[in-house]
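pls design
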């Protein structure tokens, strides 16, 4: 496996898909003046399909890297520097096939984009995931990220009931 920078024109708008399977979700419920946040085991497996485009127009001067085995793209990561607050947004990281996960592909991708973030001079890196994505949250924590925020209704008015809330995670790159 090797990592290389992706050609923007070649990969912009390229469609990809992946599936997330989880046995638990992060419950975030109001309690007093704060929130009760804890992992809850799901009665049935939580399954979510992702169908999206790489290097979308909303990204501000993005940089993307791909993990390859020969000519086969195993996964990618994309990000950009938010100049107004000097944070590096990791807009997407995805290892397409579950058979390629837990083989170091995601780790190489996150290390590569974090190196890019440091080179950009960013003070921290941030990313978004979902409350049902236990494996992603665990992976990001293993790589030094922590939960820095959440939005119970980012994706729909039924976010808590659907176990689909936005989780924002961050990692300081400078003190």
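designed seq:
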């Amino acid at each position: 496996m090797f990592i290389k920078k992706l050609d923007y024109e070649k990969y912009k708008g390229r469609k990809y898909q992946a599936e997330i399977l989880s046995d638990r979700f992060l419950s975030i419920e109001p309690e007093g003046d704060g929130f009760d946040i804890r992992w809850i085991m799901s009665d049935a497996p939580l399954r979510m399909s992702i169908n999206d485009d790489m290097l979308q127009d909303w990204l501000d001067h993005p940089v993307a890297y791909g993990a390859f085995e020969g000519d086969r793209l195993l996964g990618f990561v994309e990000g950009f520097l938010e100049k107004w607050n000097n944070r590096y947004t990791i807009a997407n990281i995805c290892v397409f096939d579950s058979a390629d996960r837990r083989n170091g592909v995601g780790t190489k991708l996150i290390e590569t984009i974090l190196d890019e973030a440091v080179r950009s001079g960013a003070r921290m890196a941030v990313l978004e995931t979902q409350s049902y994505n236990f494996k992603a949250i665990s992976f990001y924590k293993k790589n030094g990220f922590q939960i820095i925020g959440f939005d119970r209704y980012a994706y729909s008015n039924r976010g808590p009931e659907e176990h689909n809330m936005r989780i924002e995670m961050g990692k300081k790159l400078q003190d």
